[in-house]
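request received
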Amino acid sequence: MNRLLLNKAILMFSTLSAVIGLGFLLWILVTLSYKGIMSLHWSTFTHDLVEGGIRNLLVGQFTMALMASAIAVPIGMLAGIYLREYSNNGRLAAVMRNLSDVMMSAPSIVIGVFVFALLVDPFGGYNGWAGIVALAIMMIPIIISTTDNMLSLVPQELREAGMALGGSKHKIILQVVVKAAKVGITTGVLLSFARIIGETAPLLFTSANNQFFTMDLTEQFPSLTVSIYNLATYPDEASRELAWAASFVLTMVVLLINLMGRFITRSKK
Amino acid sequence: MGGKLFRNFSFLSATLSFFILIGIFAVLFTYAQEALHEFGIDFLYSDSWEVDEDDEGGLFGGWIPIVGTLLSTLIAMAIAIPLAMGIAIFLTEIAHETLVKPVSIAIELLAAIPSIIYGMWGLFYFAPIVQSTVGGDGVGLLTAGIVLAIMIIPFMAAITRDAMNTVPPVLKESAYAMGATTYEVVKDVVMPYAKGGIIGSIILALGRALGETMAVAFLIGSVMKIPDRITDPTTSIPVLLANNFAEAQDLEISAMYYLALILFVVSFALISLAKFYFFGRKSV
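response:
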């Protein structure tokens, strides 16, 4: 019974793959939590990097990610609305969708290099705005694709009902269609926020890093992820511990936002 | 009136992706001019990376980072493809209904962890294991490749699972009714039906592995040398950019832009291939 044996072997391999996948998740989370919690003190949150804490880094990372969202969410949503509601799904829309997907997969380090040439080199130094633009470029295609997909789930009847009431097209889109897709789009925004707040490569030579607390976006801007990269490679134990603490906080933030996004969709359904 | 304005704004936003992509290409191409002019196509297979201290020039070639990128990606794909397929088969054909949801969520969370965390975890927890079992310095091609694999597995598994889920149950049921085993159903019904999506997911993961920076930066060793053994340290295009771009000047930075251009063009080509050829018009 050779084929039954082969079947059994493949099934076992598949199950084993899933176990390995879950095993790594568990391994990473357990070691990260252990190292992170051991290195985390209350003072880690109240001091800036220069005094061995991550306060300025957290504020800086959130500021850049939030500002990037403020740019990317409206642009991405408008683009998604165009693709789904205005373009009649023709050839042009297909090309635009594909280009947006290509942009979504562009290597993040290349986006960093691009923004360096555009916003750092000509202005004579690293600055927070460059970091924000780099993150926004990463975020826009994700928002486009979510908006596009979520609007496609809105039943055609809703649009027709709006038209029957004499609503103008943009009023129907904004007050009926987008409203109906609100939950899905919110989830997409949260997931993409979770994605960009953990990005390092696009920030390395755009915002770079700052040891001090600052809100001035025209100078080097503090970044949690860039700091982790620097701290982890320092030889002294204190820097490494801070890197673990920062990594733990970052991962918790990312996973919590992620779960929150999923929870919203689930509870609505 | 507001309607027209709104429509125009959404059209402008939709064209932005196009302009950003063109912009990236144009900027990289312009800044790479000096190196393109100096080294031409020979850049691709020259393994020298030396700055002349006196005349701001030097001899630069992309061979070492190109080979490092390709080899680390190759190792990652060799490990990731079978495991990701296994996970997708487990989720679609084997797992009990109550298991599918939690395992799916866990796999997706694994995909959500920032790459810098993989890098750091790999450096402090995984590299020592590689060192004690296979030898070498701990950091090197093999460690980078394995951690890269762990990173792309969830991404590949999720898309493959989605592709396998599109197979109509009737097809599978009729094969089962003929006495086919689960493996035979997967091999002869599911795989052929979902072929496009599966190959597409592999290509997208390949693009991701080629461009991955942070996980590899911690683990590949960042040494400008062709590796003799699989455990040797080397470097890759993204890692070289991450570590040396900021300090480079003149011809060297132009060579860096050249490398970025190569990476951008290759991933652009791969993703276009995946999109147009394997996924058809459907968006992923």
